[in-house]
């Protein structure tokens, strides 16, 4: 199924597409589903090393971008391999991760791509602040070893040792980057919500961005990853869901489609679809949301019906994850929980009875 790319949308709505069979195919794959921006892996995400790009493939990538009107400097946001962890306290593993990281950046510059997104990693059993410093050190080293590609840190859903679950983590890393013109942030809507930042209403959405601007600065915002969340608020679970079917609901995506400062940057879907056509449908949904105006009865009725339809489709999944989350919260309150703070209710009552 083919989708017509919008020339009227003010937003660069797109999706993560396949680059299988040659990196140049990612461009035509994106065009086929109507993307105005897109993401892809630069090489197989399941292995450390990959063969260099053949020169004809690099030329074909540039040709496809020119013919299909994609600017690699602004419209494409490759995603780094998930196993790259520059904050790993094991130096041998950290160096191996850096080699893969630098290889990705070099590939970006071979293709003329201006931004590269990656997960900041985890401090594991190391000192968190020390590993933040190590991460920033590797970013500085990579910047001096490349020419122009911007390194984009993604916010994360987890907590504890995972870097980037708090805005403060990202700010700390940016503070230690020497050339701040070469670093930025990608905000993932699912990760944001799962990390405990409620963005599901206009009030909470505006509050989050006010905090973002205060802590990090909107000038560092380079991209958005657009996902609903299978897990509830503050569940610390990275579980992407189709727009409108998760705990975020459709409203936040309508808000995004009316937020001026998000114009001009890649807004990339990573929702769970078995076929690219699903992304095409969601891009058209986002472009339709851009046209919906509050206060117009006919449009509001159509929006309410669509929101209700999507909400119902995700109802079973939400209930399942809510049950899991509630059980997890309950187990964390038991005396055997490793991170329990203070006596449990049972212990308190037993202590009182002994008195």
Concise account of the structure shown:
It is built from 13 helices and nine strands.
Describe this structure in words.
The chain is 44% helix and 10% strand. The protein has a single domain (12-293), classed as Alpha-Beta Barrel (TIM Barrel). The strands form two sheets. A seven-stranded parallel β-sheet has the order 2-1-9-6-5-4-3. Strands 7-8 form a two-stranded antiparallel ribbon. The protein starts with 11 loop residues before the first strand and ends with a helix. It has 355 residues and is of the alpha/beta class.
Question: Low-confidence stretches at least 5 residues in length (pLDDT < 50)?
Answer: 336-355
Largest sheet composition: 7 strands, parallel
Order of helices and strands: EHEHHHEHEHEHHEEEHEHHHH
Distance between the termini: 74 Å
Bin the helical content: 40-55%
What CATH first level would be assigned?
Alpha Beta
Bulk shape: globular
Strand element count: 9
What is the averaged pLDDT score? Answer: 93
Keywords:
355 residues; TIM Barrel; 7-stranded parallel beta sheet; two-stranded antiparallel ribbon; 13 helices; 44% helix; disordered C terminus
């Amino acid at each position: 199924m083919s989708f017509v790319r919008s020339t009227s949308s003010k937003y660069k709505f797109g999706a993560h597409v396949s680059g299988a069979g040659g990196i140049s195919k990612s461009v035509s794959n994106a065009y086929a589903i109507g993307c105005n921006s897109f993401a892809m892996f630069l090489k197989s995400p399941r292995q450390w090393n990959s063969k260099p790009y053949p020169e004809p493939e690099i030329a074909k990538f540039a040709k496809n971008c020119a013919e299909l009107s994609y600017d690699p400097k602004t419209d494409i946001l490759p995603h780094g391999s998930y196993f790259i962890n520059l904050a790993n306290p094991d130096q041998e593993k950290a160096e191996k991760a850096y080699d893969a990281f630098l290889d990705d950046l070099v590939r970006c510059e071979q293709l003329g791509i201006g931004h590269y997104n990656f997960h900041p990693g985890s401090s594991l059993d190391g000192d968190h602040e020390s590993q933040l410093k190590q991460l920033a050190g590797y970013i500085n080293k990579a910047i001096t070893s490349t020419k122009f590609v911007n390194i984009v840190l993604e916010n994360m859903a987890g907590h504890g040792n995972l870097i980037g679950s708090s805005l403060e983590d990202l700010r700390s890393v940016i503070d230690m980057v020497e050339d701040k013109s070469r670093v930025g942030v990608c905000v993932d809507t699912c990760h944001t919500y799962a990390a405990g930042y409620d963005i599901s209403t206009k009030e909470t959405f505006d509050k989050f961005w006010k905090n973002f601007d205060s802590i990090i600065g909107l000038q560092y915002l380079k991209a958005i990853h657009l996902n609903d969340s299978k897990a509830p608020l503050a569940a610390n679970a990275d579980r992407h869901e189709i727009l409108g079917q998760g705990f975020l609901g459709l409203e936040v995506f309508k808000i995004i489609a009316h937020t001026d400062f998000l114009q001009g940057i890649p807004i990339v879907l990573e929702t769970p679809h078995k076929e690219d056509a699903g992304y095409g449908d969601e891009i058209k949904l986002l472009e339709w949301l851009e046209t919906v105006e509050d206060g117009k009865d006919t449009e509001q009725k159509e929006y309410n019906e669509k929101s209700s339809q999507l909400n119902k489709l995700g109802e079973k999944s939400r209930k399942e994850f809510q049950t899991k989350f509630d059980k997890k919260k309950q187990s964390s309150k038991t005396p055997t929980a490793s991170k329990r703070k203070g006596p449990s209710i049972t212990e308190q009552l037993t202590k009182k009875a002994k008195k």
